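re: ur question from the group chat, yeah i did fold both. here u go
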Amino acid sequence: MKKIISILIVLITISSQAQNKKWTLIECVQYALENNISVKQSELDIATADIDRLTAIGNFLPSLNAGSSVSENTGLSFNPLTNNAQTTTFLSVNGNINVGYTLFDGLRNIRTLQRAKISKLASQYRLDKMKDDISLFVANGYLQVILNKANLNVLQSQNEVTQEQIERTEQLVEVGQLPRGDLLEIKAVNASEQQSIINAENSIQISLIGLAQLLLIKDYETFDIEDEGYDIVDSGIVNKDITEILAKSKETRSEIKIAEQNVELAKKDVQIAKGANLPTLSAFFGYNTRFVNTTSFNQQVDPDNPFLTQQIGVVEGTGQSVVGQFPNTIVQEVAADPFINQLYQNDGIGYGLSLNIPIFNGFATKGNIKRSKINLERSKFQLEQTELDLESTVYQAYVDAKGSFKSYEAAKSALESQELAYEYAKERYDVGLTNAFDFSQSKLRFDNAKIEVNRAKYDYIFKLKVLELYFGIPVTELKF
């Protein structure tokens, strides 16, 4: 019984720890990269590229095929062994083995293997880009939850101040130092703050559900994140020159590498299409044998009467008969030879070379070459467009990061001013030099300034990490 109780306690403890688990940003990113459907699909693309590469390697190996057939003939048929027509029923078994090898095919097999390797590399780059995009989505959703939680903390802490002000105002109203209208004004502010707190709690829950859905986590009720220890970690990327960032992004970004590999794939397609104009030389070797269970007939000398004496002519003038002896043969039915013996007796081989020279195929090859060249030009234009898009995106990310930093600094300055104004208004309200409405307005501006600092802070963190990502820093090495 004690063991059962101990096991139950352990299970309850483990379950409680699992429910109270708070996910870090790194854990969320890693979990998303392992479970996201789009990432899994990109991984399947790599597996498909491996199969294409294996198939391309197989084109360099000889082909080996074996075949056999069994048939039964009834009635008048040609005996495959004697090639004579006979009326009988017999079983026929045929077997063959064929080997083929392509000696030259216009270098298409080599080009196909090279293309398969490039295709796998392009699939890997697409997977890397997908992981970068998913990581950014997760980071944005994660920071949104932290922002909502930070805003909730601001509202709750300020509401605590409001609660204290209500108690103090009630005391001052009771002794007649403040009018009752001030108390009503403070209570109205409290009601508004309570509503804002409820809205902030709802925002947290909604953002948590959104993040959980992005991670494919279905347990929304217990899902939560670690909202402490995240601050601005600047690697100095904002102070770098934009040309340096742009050059680095062109070297490291997956979208550029994907476009470059697409150009290489198009070049290989052109080479493969041109290879169809060259002759194809193949070697072949074949072995075949057969077995037939039909009987046959042959002539043998009669052992009892081996010779026959017959007149073959007469002697002219005398009329004397001329006789001769001939073998006395009889026809005998012979059973089929054993199966193994026939396999050796009836086998045969064939080997040689086959040359195929393309002369005219209705402009199909010419059309494929032109089509491949057009695709090559299209892929070059796409590479150029990708470079322009990346340049525009990097410039935008650079401007956004600098702008969000300035916005964050301005928000902090505004918060300092609003905090001084709030403290001054609070002192005046406590001594009865200002009314509750003016004090509540000052407090509201102070609360909004705090919320704006939070928004500017996490907006700057996200845009800073986006810029670092374009600079070539891997997602797993981003510092928060």
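okk and heres the other one u asked abt
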Amino acid sequence: MRDPAQRLRVGVVFGGVSPEHEVSVITGLQAAAALDRTRYEIVPLYIAKDGSWYTGPVLLELEAYQDLDALRRAAIPVRFDPAVHGRMLLVEATPRRWPWRRPRRYLVDVVLLALHGGEGENGGVQGLCETLNVPYTGSGVLGSALGMDKVLSKLLCREQGIPVVDFLWFREADWAGREEEWLDRLEAELGYPMVVKPARLGSSIGIQRVEDRQALDAAIEEAFRYDEKVVVERAIRNLREINCAVLGDPSEARPSMLEEPVRSDPSKLLTFQDKYMRGGGKAGRRAGKQQAPQGMASLDRIIPAPLDEAQTRAVQEMAVRVFQLFECAGVARIDFLLDDDTGQVYFNEINTIPGSFSFYLWEPVGVPFDALMDELIRLAQKRHREKNGRVRSYDVNLLSVRSLQGLKGAKQRS
């Protein structure tokens, strides 16, 4: 058992095989910087673009990521050792030219997931943590997988009476050879303008708003470059985007302050460049006052979103409802579409590991970044205790001599 006086070893996992790799690196480094070094020992765990895992202090230096090849040479490649159950054990992958040196070992008590997209946010790495029985932050396998799939998440919300815009979806195999048929159907059932999205990608990558048939065809082909499943939605002409983060688990969930992202071009959708590359962004404008940009918060956003009290409460309640419906945990951000002509609010998507953990939505309500990280770790440990407090095996050996005889007899009688 770990000595309570010892610092908790937190493995901060970031990077990953995903188009959102660089976004994840920034989120991971922000989280590592926010963790209290008197309480936590930080073990950076970087997943390279080819899926290799690395650790080492160089991984905490943002400037090192300007040359990824040099970074990997300076970092320490590691592999999993499943010998320790209940914690994550990583062992240095020792180069063969130094066979006499004992590989270094890295033991992790809690995994802090800062991955965006791909296997890091769709339940894959969460499943690894479940297999190793190690506590990890954020949602479980189910919530992560559902949240990553825009089609399944919309179908579930619509089934539960949560408004979503009209949409159609199809796979690449459905589209191939039937392009004109699908274009006719989309025009007939949705009408222009439409929004085309890869079904399982974030950060506005591969998303386009289209106004005519030629652009629709091209946008669908582009979306298939990122995913074999595509969703096409009816576009809202007078659109406002409203986001709300939720913190907790299904039994204790609370909403954050709302934000309204500001698009660089009001006539277009929010882009990857708007979110992450607007260097002079006025992050977190509150009541007319500007705050300095904070990492991933380079996006222009209005906090709190300029809605009346009733609208604000309705969005927050819907966000908590979605969070609980997806059985989420930790912090998630739920994005909504507001039709400013009708006042109707629609569920758009849920981000089970939001960029920068949406810290900028929690600071205004009295939860600073370091306290947010503390809460994520507390929730991870709580869920781990609850899981291991239940019966997880049945104390009967069906392979014992007596049991095998019984099984053979039953087989003969059948």
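fwiw on the second one: The longest helix spans residues 369-388. The radius of gyration is 24 Å. idk if thats what u expected
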